[in-house]
């Protein structure tokens, strides 16, 4: 005996797939933190070419450094910040406002 199993299940499968695709896309397209947090620090993959060779101060400890291709860098509120090493950068990214005064006063 043959039953039209595949055909009758097709709309249900489509509905399930559709629901799954909405569930998986929704968190990416509408991040909840986007609206109430204007400035989020993020890691830069590498310093912008314009900043290479520039003399600056580590935004974490205030040590003088020159920006090189592999200098750990971050972007916060539209500005670039540089660090001695990755762990200092990670500390800055976790709480940027705590360290901003180091680069702000001169
Ligand atoms: Zn440092």
Topology:
Elements: H1 5-29, E1 42-44, E2 55-57, E3 64-66, E4 73-76, E5 79-82, H2 86-94, H3 96-104
Antiparallel strand pairs: 1-4, 2-3, 4-5
What does this structure look like?
There is one protein chain. The chain has three helices and five strands. It is an alpha+beta fold and 106 residues long. The chain has a domain at 42-104. The strands form two sheets. A three-stranded antiparallel sheet has the order 1-4-5, with helices on one face. A two-stranded antiparallel ribbon has the order 2-3. A hairpin with a 2-residue loop joins strand 4 and strand 5. The chain starts with a helix and ends with a helix.
Provide key terms for this protein.
alpha+beta; binds zinc ion; three-stranded antiparallel sheet; 106 residues; single chain; two-stranded antiparallel ribbon; 3 helices
């Amino acid at each position: 005996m043959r039953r039209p199993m595949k055909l009758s299940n097709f709309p249900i499968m489509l509905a399930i797939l559709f629901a799954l695709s909405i569930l998986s896309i929704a968190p990416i397209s509408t991040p909840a933190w986007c609206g109430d947090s204007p400035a989020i620090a993020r890691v830069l993959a590498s310093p912008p070419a314009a900043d290479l060779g520039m003399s600056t101060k580590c935004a974490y400890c205030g040590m003088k450094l020159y920006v090189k291709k592999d200098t750990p860098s971050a972007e916060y509120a539209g500005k670039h910040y540089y660090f001695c090493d990755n762990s200092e950068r990670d500390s800055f990214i976790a709480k940027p406002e705590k360290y901003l005064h180091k680069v702000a006063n001169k």
